Amino acid sequence: MFCRWGTVRRLCLNKLPLQHVIQARALSGADAVNALRPFYFAVHPDFFGQHPREREINENSLKRLNGYLENLQKPGFRSLKPTRLTFYVREKEQNPSNVQEPFGSSGFRAVSFTLRTRDLLSTVLDILNSCNLSTDHVQILNGKVATPSNQSAERIFHRPIKWDKTYYSFTGFKDPEEELEQAQRMETTLSSWLDSNEQSAEKKLKNSLPLRKELDRLKGELSHQLQLSDIRWQRSWGIAHRCSQLHSLSRLAQQSPEALRNAKGRTVIFTDRSGMSATGHVMLGTMDVHHHWTKIFERLPSYSALQKKVLLLEDRISHILGGIQVGYIEELQPMLMLEEYYSVLDSFYNRVRNSRLPFHPHSLRGLQMILESDRYAPYLHELGHFIIPTTCDPAALQWFMITKAQQAREKLKRKEESMVLEKKLIKASAEKFRLQRLYKEPSVSCVQMIHSCNRLLEGESLPNLQGMHLCISHFYSVMQDGDLCIPWNWKH
User: Which residues form the DUF4461 domain (predicted)?
Assistant: First the structure.
């Protein structure tokens, strides 16, 4: 694979003449993790224990970043929606020539960047460059420099510049070798990490217990008072933050009881914006004032007509495409407003309704599909549902669905079996270690959770985890309320 010249220049660090061509292999997932170790070291939530706001922002941004990196490695991937991320980056020294924003007294700075790349290598380089971290080690991970076809170039001896340690002391620049060594020392085992963090987690969990009881009480009272189906949160806010949101909703229920009667039987989700979700749930933006929330509850009856249109469009598309079930999967798709979801359905329906696709009326019954506006080619997800771009060519869509139908049915069957096994293993693991709760992040797949639980059940004994909350995630962390997060592919 030949890299773009912009990437080549960064990898070469201007050490080769412009006429030379660099040949590099694509980064693997493991390579990307290794290359990003200095970045993980600079933003890891464990280093922000005294700064809960910055810690939470880094935790949420890391989850979104991990999801972005995983999607880049999926087969059939073409492109991703640009993702805006913000991290608080800690540094030992300030370099005035590189810093995007001034340091605060806490010794860290905020860095924001947008990921628009289509491959792991470009993504890794963009992340490191955005945070002013060295990219020298990426050249090593990405392979050796290819020998140029020009014979005269064979006589050139390419040796990376190795500066004396005094250079870094004098200039204030970071030594990439020292930085990489520090990041590599972060490679920990599950047992050692639990040994080091168990007491901290126990203390935080104990301190959070009164708030956890208060949260359960508030949730139960509001659900009963407003006759709600459920109350949920889109992001992993802390217990105190969630209690504050429920107190706000409780005050609104006292101030505007008539408007909140419209929420009867619905699910309320605290999220980043207010409205109605694609699945018909009430979305309350945590940054909005009570006036905005009141308007949403008042408008709920008017959403009924739009919901009926959404259901009608789903049925019409299903009829055209052989009876396949058309829907929106909240766990796998970005949070869409009902209006946005209707627009996606309407665009796709107008594209396929006049194509007269020769599907048998019931040939795809029992299968599932979702629509994505930022994808360019149809894709069969590992869980068995079709992911279809709204701009997909109808003829190509027909061929893809017919040829993949049997494979989709097999994956759906394995999905059902895996979900049963996952539930069984979670229960067994929680009982073995006497955990108060064992759960996973939404970005952790069913297969990954099964793998992790099997290793927990088969592995060696761990430190006393009785009464703890254990979350299977993608990185190590102690949450502000005492939940222990461990990566699903943890090392012994």
Answer: 188-491
- Rounded CA-CA distance 348/392 in Å is 8
CA distances in angstroms from 139 to 53, 73, 168, listed in the order given: 35, 20, 20
- What is the predicted pLDDT for the residue at 57? 84
368-381 pLDDT, tens digit per residue, is 999 987 777 898 99
d(CA 391, CA 403): 20
Least confidently predicted of 167-176, 220-229, 239-248: 167-176
Is residue 167 within 8 Å of residue 173, measured between CB atoms? yes
Nearest to 41 by CA among 170, 136, 134, 103: 134
Tokens for 174, please give them.
């970071």
CA angle 37, 5, 172 (to 5 degrees): 45
Question: Do residues 91 and 107 lie in contact, with contact meaning Cβ atoms separated by under 8 Å?
Answer: yes
Question: Where residue 154 falls among pLDDT bands split at 50, 70, 90?
Answer: very low
Phi, psi of 489, rounded to the nearest 5 degrees: -105, 40
Angstrom distance (rounded) from CA 286 to CA 480 = 19
Max Cα distance, the chain (Å): 84
Instruction: Band the pLDDT of 252: cuts 50, 70, 90.
Output: very high
Instruction: Specify the higher pLDDT residue, 230 or 56.
Output: 230
Cα dihedral sign for 30, 34, 40, 41? Answer: positive
